[in-house]
Design a protein that fits this description.
By secondary structure, the protein is mainly α. The protein has 8 helices and no strands. Helix 1 runs antiparallel to helix 6, helix 2 runs antiparallel to helix 3 and helix 5 packs antiparallel against helix 6.
């Protein structure tokens, strides 16, 4: 599932960056600030989606966004777990801000590389912390870690 997320989000981010504007960046900054000040883990997952959706909105690809939303919804419980693990909130905030700055500078290649690393990092953290029986299952988040984990 993380591989699907990487493919879809890479594509939509590439499409969106040329059309991002000050409204996009102001909204993304507000979401990052809210995430940084939020203490409710459940709300972190919502803010994570809001930020990603905010960055992708400029692409104006509603069907692609619905696919990405579906993947995010499927992974939400794993995302909440990942944020709790290994410096989660601070790491995610740092990665989100780096992604935002790369988008703001218009550097598509750097932004998509940061996005790929961000998603792969989530998968890697989960794979390292889930019990081995969960990792072996075909539907678990770490079921196909080889190509995802850097």
């Amino acid at each position: 599932m993380f591989e699907v997320r990487m493919l879809l989000e890479d594509k939509v981010l590439r499409l969106a960056i040329p059309y991002m504007d000050s409204v996009t960046f102001s909204a993304a900054e507000r979401i990052c600030q809210a995430f940084n000040h939020e203490h409710d883990v459940g709300r972190w997952a919502e803010l994570n989606w809001e930020l990603h959706a905010c960055l992708y909105e400029a692409a104006q690809r509603s069907f692609l966004m619905s696919l990405i939303r579906s993947v995010h919804d499927t992974q939400e419980r794993y995302l909440r777990m990942q944020v709790r693990l290994s410096a989660g909130k601070e790491r995610v905030d740092h990665e989100h801000r780096g992604l935002l700055e790369a988008c703001r500078s218009g550097d598509v290649e750097h932004a998509t590389r940061l996005l790929q690393e961000h998603i792969a990092g989530v998968c890697k953290t989960l794979f390292e912390h889930l019990p081995r029986s969960r990792q072996a299952g075909p539907s678990g988040p770490g079921a196909t870690p080889g190509p995802v984990v850097p």
